[in-house]
Design brief:
heterodimer, A: alpha+beta, 22% helix, elongated, B: Nucleotidyltransferase, domain 5, 6-stranded mixed sheet, 5-stranded mixed sheet
């Protein structure tokens, strides 16, 4: 049926029932308005194509994709080789991981950690542990990774893990001897490190602040973030500061754990692109852990005395509220006695954890053993923990 | 407290209602449907024997089938005896079965009740008799109704056509199968009422003297006509009944075939049988997911790249693969309903790859379904003749069902019987409401 025939039919309807004419006129007028708007958009697009704006935009996008490809190649160790040279899967044999221990003043050590290692002690770091009230933190990652350094001012920079000097296991080191790849500017501290190689596969970059603010940024913005060396503080209050940053997919679940034992689960999909306070914390409370909860993992929270509290992922209800207190994981009586969380991790039963205690000892533990024992034996108060993510092969 | 409900177990749509002595409450059994009080009579059984009904069943069927892989394997289905003058041999029959099929969708359960020789069907590793299928459907209907009412339902009045089957034996068997299925579904007490009687219950309350009444029940799946004597102190009498498998879903189909297919490339694509097959499948909501294979996606992509009606084929691709089919069918149905009251409406669908806009008038609609009017008129006059009545001897015509609102058919009734005799009952609920009242009594 041709369009002219359709018009004839509309006219026929209007002639048969004059009351329909007004309705037909309204519908056609609405369509005309929509088409005019669309035509304008298309004309604008045409202009952008003709004057080269669109070409520039695509050129930028290609550059961004090439950068992401380079990151991926690096991750699979296929730098400089064609894509067909990429291995089909992760090698079955456990790889040595780089274990980074870093503090708020930007000092970093790189140790080597094997997930299947039989040795419990990895090394010892001496010197002042706390910097500006912030405890040192740990991160385990493949050696080929690039990391993003996130500062409390919102500044970011990148660093190849392999560029950090290697520290032999079993020896004592002083913080003062640690590498300082990017010294924090005046008034800022190093907030956290983020492994970057999964950036091309991620949908969002997620930021969490100490006072429970959350912000997500499209990973497609990463090019401009890295070019400008600025991601933003991700905090709503002046006194607040950046705590953590990580990559995630839109269907995933974010978990926040506070020092006073509150846990809050949020759907990444429902988070705002602007910094937004999502966890209502007591004035003296603050976030001690934030991560994406992987499927099948359990939440393991560690107290300052090394006690382990485990919760199944399903026990944590996803909050739909804009601002929530979260579930209480520490009983009120224990809270009164001074029990506090120092960290939390999502662990599978075969995973291994590296723990740093107040005496500076770095020790390796098996998650299932910790869960069964209900505590980590450490010298003095416990400070920080990291997950060894690629745990395969024989276990001690 | 044990509750008593009325269930209209229809060929295409069903419904549940309860009467509290003052008013009838239609239960919103299918919250996902355009009309929540109407639940489609479809049953979907998944490979792990999970059963779903109504819109949920259809949505799951779509989710399971769109873009899935198929693997056809040869299976022995039986054997056929060949007998000639001096020879006799047996031949094996094989069929190709999709072994990755995630579930099976069944509709027309009510038709299966009256089909001679149809005992049941195999669904994966289990054999379901017709009664088992009906029991599963009724059981889920009961469960949903109980959740809404917050109490258990003990008794049900089920609607039944005047004749399930032409033979008394077939009629008795169909009713018995339905009764046993209702018992197996958990109802403790089951009784029946003729659907036209239920539809006319409201009207019967208003008449003072016996009348000859034509019940014109024109719903989503079938047209059922009954000529009855109502208000007689000797009881009701059904003079004749008849029907035809023409109803709302056929009109939806006619709209799509005549007005929508051009938007998906019909008339622009030629010499591409695979693509044409996909376009022709659009009116059939059951066939559409079957075409949503990775192979067909490649065929469409190739045709689009070859600049063969790219905008329209992109729209077809979006319809098949982007979960838009149901929105599309609902828009068409909504347009059809709107044209009962107004002269023009819009069928539109705007998404990333689809920009469908069709101004549709009542004149166009009437032109598209004109050929059904003759069929309806024929069966109407035949039923009247079978009742031994002339149109002038009919005192009232009670029309019910959504399709009876279509002006073309209202005009037909007015033309045959006179406009003053045509009464409108609640178009979507008079049968189930009558059954609920009967159940309460």
């Amino acid at each position: 049926m041709t369009f002219a025939e359709k018009i004839e039919e509309w006219i026929k309807e209007a002639e048969t029932r004059p009351g329909s004419a007004l309705m037909i006129l309204k519908l056609i007028a609405g369509r005309l308005r929509d088409l005019t708007e669309r035509n304008e958009e298309l004309l604008a697009e045409n202009i952008a194509l003709e004057n080269g704006t669109r070409v520039d935009e695509y050129q930028k996008r290609i550059t961004h994709l090439e950068y992401q490809l380079a990151l991926l190649k690096k991750r699979f160790g296929a730098d400089g080789e064609p894509l067909s040279g990429l291995p089909a899967a992760q090698p079955a044999a456990p790889q040595a991981l780089a274990l980074l221990a870093y503090n708020a003043s930007g000092r970093m050590f790189r140790f080597e950690a094997f997930p299947d290692s039989q040795r419990a002690a990895l090394g010892r770091i001496l010197g002042e542990m706390s910097m500006g009230g912030e405890q040192p933190r740990l991160l385990a990652l493949p050696l080929e990774e690039d990391v993003l350094l996130m500062f409390t001012s919102g500044r970011v920079s990148t660093l190849a893990a392999a560029d950090l000097p290697f520290s032999e296991a079993g020896r004592s080191r002083f913080w003062i001897d640690a590498a300082l790849p990017d010294e924090p500017h005046a008034g800022e501290l190093l907030a956290c490190l983020l492994p970057l190689s999964r950036l091309p596969l991620a949908d969002f970059i997620l930021q969490v602040s100490r006072r429970g603010s959350v912000k997500r940024t499209l990973s497609s913005m990463s090019e401009s973030v890295l070019a400008n060396h600025y991601l933003g503080r991700g905090a709503t209050q002046k006194a607040d500061q950046a705590f953590d940053v990580f990559l995630c997919q839109k269907k995933e679940r974010l978990l926040l754990v506070s020092s006073q034992g509150r846990a809050l689960a949020l759907n990444v999909d429902e988070l705002s692109y602007a910094s937004e306070e999502r966890m209502r914390l007591e004035p003296t409370d603050y976030i001690v852990a934030s991560f994406i909860m992987p499927a099948g993992a359990a939440l393991v929270c560690l107290t300052q005395t090394g006690k382990v509290i485990e919760r199944a992922a399903d026990d944590l209800e996803v909050s739909k509220s804009g601002l929530a207190r979260g579930q209480a994981l520490i009983p009120p009586s224990r809270l009164e006695q001074g029990t506090r969380f120092i960290g939390a991790l999502p662990v599978g039963k075969d995973d291994r954890l590296v723990v740093l205690d107040a005496a500076g000892n770095l020790t390796l533990h098996t998650a299932s053993v910790l869960s069964a024992a209900g505590a980590i034996k450490v010298d003095g108060p416990f400070l920080s923990a990291a997950l060894l993510p690629y745990s395969e092969g024989p276990k001690p | 407290m044990s509750l008593r409900v009325g269930i209209d177990f229809g060929t295409s749509n069903s419904g549940v209602a309860i009467y509290d002595g003052r008013q009838v409450k239609l239960l919103p059994i299918d919250k996902k449907n355009v009309l929540p009080e109407v639940v489609k009579t479809v049953l979907y059984i998944t490979r792990d024997y999970r059963s779903l009904i109504g819109q949920e069943a259809i949505e799951q069927y779509y989710r399971d089938n769109i873009n899935r892989q198929r693997r056809f394997v040869r299976q022995w289905a039986g054997e056929i005896d060949y007998r000639g003058a001096d020879m006799h041999y047996v031949r094996d029959i094989f069929v190709y079965v999709d072994e990755l099929k995630p579930g099976r969708l069944m509709q027309y359960l009510k038709t299966a009740l009256r089909k001679d020789g149809y005992e049941g069907t195999r669904i994966f590793e289990r054999y379901y008799k017709v009664g088992d299928l009906v029991q599963t459907y009724l059981g889920l209907l009961k469960q949903r109704a109980e959740e809404l009412l917050g109490d258990s339902i003990q008794a049900v009045t089920l609607g039944r056509p005047v004749r399930f089957s032409a033979s008394p034996e077939g009629d008795r068997r169909a009713e018995e199968t339905l009764r046993q299925a209702a018992y197996a579904a958990g109802f403790k007490q089951v009784d029946f009422e003729l659907e036209p009687v239920a539809a006319a219950l409201d009207y019967e309350q208003t008449i003072q003297s016996p009348q000859n009444v034509v019940i014109f029940d024109f719903g989503g799946g079938t047209l059922d006509i009954a000529v009855m004597r109502l208000g007689d102190s000797h009881g009701r009498q059904v003079y004749a009944s008849g029907g035809v498998d023409v109803a709302g879903s056929d009109f939806d189909r006619a709209i799509i075939e005549k007005r929508m297919l051009a938007h998906f490339g019909l008339g622009k694509v030629s010499h591409q049988p695979e693509v044409l097959e996909m376009i022709q499948a659009v009116p059939d909501w059951m066939a559409l997911p079957e075409l949503a294979t990775p192979l067909n996606r490649n065929i469409l992509e190739k045709a689009i790249r070859a600049r063969m009606a790219p905008v329209r084929l992109k729209a077809l691709q979006a319809l098949i693969y982007d979960d838009l089919a149901f929105t599309f069918y609902n828009r068409v149905e909504a347009a059809k309903i709107a044209l009962s009251d107004q002269g023009a409406t819009l069928i539109s669908l705007d998404d990333r790859n689809i920009g469908l806009w069709e101004l549709y008038t009542r004149a166009q609609f009437e032109k598209d379904i004109q050929h059904y009017v003759g069929q309806v008129e024929k069966v109407l006059l035949e039923t009247l003749a079978a009742a031994g009545l002339e149109p002038g001897q009919v005192d009232a015509v009670v029309k019910t069902g959504g399709s009876s609102n279509i002006p073309l058919f209202s005009d037909l009734l007015a033309r045959v019987f006179g406009a003053d005799k045509v009464r409108m009952s609640n178009s979507f609920s008079s049968v189930v409401a009558g059954l609920a009242i009967k159940a309460a009594r």
